[in-house]
Amino acid sequence: MPQQVAINIRTEAYHRLLGAHYTLHDCTAGYAHLTDEERAATRVLVTAGFKGATGAEMDELPNLGLICCVGTGYEGIDVQAAIARGIRVSHGAGVNAGAVADHTMALLLAAVRAIPHQDRLTRSGAWNYTETPRPLVSRKTMGIFGMGGIGQALARRAAAFDMPVLYHSRTPKADLPYGYVASLKELAERSDYLVACVPGGPATQHAVNAEVLHALGPRGYLVNVGRGSAVDTDALIAALQSGGIAGAGLDVFEAEPEVPAALTALENVVLTPHMAGNAPEVQEMAADLIRDNIAAFEAGQPLVSPVPEMKALAPTV
């Protein structure tokens, strides 16, 4: 009999890719519609970092044994509550790194070269006789905040643009050829373009604040493709409005899906709806990884991609 799996995110691709292998219960609106038998039989929950699962939600499925997060970030999952209940947690570590890195370069180019504005201008029938020249992207320094899979994929792309790369993360990566900077403020001071690709959570909450934006300066650009909570939105809006920084490219926001009207009114920011990692190839890889983790769970084997907190536990967790 196929494994019964609950999914609490409304993404057609994952419903299709996983539904072909499991008995899938759509729980995007909660678990109240499940029968007692379905609750008891459901041992796997599929979610995303922005949605996650609280301890109370885990208790809705009394025999839950595995939570699979489709992406790298899993901040919405109460991992400690899962551990206390003997529930294992996996995530899609690295599967979307290439797509997010591609999208980051697109946002950077669009913001610095004012592509949306130029597109509207050209469609209107105007031409560029009076347009202000736009800065180069190549040969400028990129500062990367967060040197995980996404940061490393981005650094390789930046190198192809002849961009020196500096980075700040919790610890230096001795095996990487890029310059490590000990503080985020110093990274901003030394960068033309600052990219945030860090996970959410208390450790990164408003890490990019007014002080960091001031250090980035009036010729600097910010790109955020990690989590909206990593940037102080009010400070960013103030910097964009005042010319404290030159511009920004944002794929993530603090109160998604709500985007502040003050941001949408600005010409010097390019906005996309948290879709940097949204590619069919990524969805297929993520679904394959979820199936591998479910197979390991069913066999009583170590998970293929456990979240870091799980790695500290017994080998079979």
TrEMBL record:
Source domain of life: Bacteria
InterPro entries tied to this protein: D-isomer_2-hydroxyacid_DH, D-isomer_2_OHA_DH_cat_dom, D-isomer_DH_CS1, D-isomer_DH_NAD-bd, NAD(P)-bd_dom_sf
A Pfam family reported for this protein in Swiss-Prot or TrEMBL: 2-Hacid_dh
Keyword match Oxidoreductase: yes
Protein name: Lactate dehydrogenase
UniProt domain D-isomer specific 2-hydroxyacid dehydrogenase NAD-binding: residue ranges: 105-276
Gene Ontology CC: cytosol
